[in-house]
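lol ok so funny story. i was supposed to be doing the assay writeup but got distracted and ended up predicting the structure for this chain instead. priorities right. anyway since i did it might as well share w the group, maybe its usefull for someone
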Amino acid sequence: MTYLWVKAFHIIAMVCWFAALFYLPRLFVYHAMSEDQTSRDRFKVMERKLYRGIMTPSMIATLILGVWLLALNPAWLGQGWMHAKLTLIGLLIAYHVYCGQILVKFARDDNQRSHVFFRWFNEAPVFALIGIVVLVVVKPF
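and the output, tada:
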């Protein structure tokens, strides 16, 4: 029974994390396109609150619950699909940290990237999500 509760909350935390991973770069798109200081200031507040209030806590909860699931099922660590999943999670964590660096640049009005860059940047988590879901459900190796 504990396993099912941990799994449920892990999925909930993961959904919240991915929602933020999808939304923050979209805010960067709009922020990069903004032309007036009022809009830029509004985006700074939205980005900071999303990153600190939702995105980072959701990531931490996802990781803690994921480690808990691994502790309940240590045999998974010997399986190839889990190694691939953990690699994708490592890349997502790097993406998350990079989003934080971008946020700091926007906060200092030091962004050098165009809205087109952020439109492409926004797509990266989609591929990770597809890979992770396929690995967990299909367990191809």
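The mean pLDDT is 97. The two ends are 27 Å apart (CA to CA).
back to the writeup now i swear
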